[in-house]
Amino acid sequence: MMRGARAAVSIPAFILTAAFVGYAGLARETGLSLGETLAMTGFIWALPSIVVLTGALSSGMGLIPAAIAVALASVRLMPMTMALMPMVKVPGKTKTWQLLIASHFVAVTAWVYAMKNLPDLPRVGRLPFFIGFGGTVSSFVFVMTGIAYLSVERLPPLVAGALVLLTPVYFLCSLWGAAKIPADKAAMVAGLLLGPFFFVYLPGLDLLWTGLAGGSLAYAATVFYRRRFFR
Amino acid sequence: MSGADFAGAWWWPYVMILVAGWLATDIWRWLGVFAGGRLREDGEFLIWVRCVATALVAGVISKLILFPQGVLETTPVWLRISAAAFGFVVFLGVRQKVVLGVLAAEVFLIGGWLVLGS
């Protein structure tokens, strides 16, 4: 676990800290309190879901639509967690509750790091390493988010604006980097184009519609493409 | 269930965070643990679900760039789009190093901001 904690001083941790510092700026600008911002950082620990919920809170969305929007934004965590489990599990020895705790640290950045680095470790050491890594990174980011939230007011406009842009650009790059098949990339392009359209014409549930319409369109297009050219 | 009756209460956002945030997010992580390796990651249903989620997050990206909150709102929209596009092109050009893409977008934004003198 200590090795995982030490490994937390890393590039993914820096990216996450910078992204959450940027998010703290966004949260403040949106009118969220410090407690709300920190509760989201600690409890959710997945920036896309946090940003979706921030939008929901600021637009006064109901509990159920907000939960659906957030759940849709975090569906990706399930296959990621599934892919990670066989790697950290010691058959017949690892308890399910240990895996449930570890799963809270599954988020794009930490997951990519884990999939790349865990195979180098002996099997028994992987779960403690992952928990040590995830726990340390998220605690550090939690504290930095709080500090950033409190100091954002004193930042010059240029820096504050630059930090707000950090979140979308970080997503843009890492979402593309996480895309494994053409359907993922098509969905991303569809979402980028449809997002503003639904925001203007169907405000409130715009993200849900962007996801369902853009995602289904991209999926259908790539299925059609596969049938047309690979059969 | 509408939040209208409680929307003003100080604790309402925390209920939202616990139910619509924590529960709605961690449920997938827990399901991931329980499902183990049963569902295939390249199964058709999962591909569609991931498409929907990806498009949704992409929608968040373009919303943040086109309709930002706060001080970034004062910058011209073309500057924000060009900065993000420039960062993405650099990201693709340097074998998908996220750090460099983000840095490039920031340099572009700050440079443009200073040149425009706002």
From TrEMBL, chain A:
The keyword Ribonucleoprotein does not apply. This is Putative branched-subunit amino acid permease. It comes from the Bacteria. The chain crosses the membrane at residues 37-56, 97-115, 127-152, 158-179, 208-225. Keywords: Membrane, Transmembrane, Transmembrane helix. Pfam families: AzlC. InterPro entries: Brnchd-chn_aa_trnsp_permease (IPR011606).
TrEMBL record, chain B:
Keywords: Membrane, Transmembrane, Transmembrane helix. InterPro entries: Brnchd-chn_aa_trnsp_AzlD. It holds the Pfam family AzlD. The chain crosses the membrane at residues 12-33, 45-65, 77-94, 99-116. It comes from the Bacteria. This is Branched-subunit amino acid transport protein AzlD.
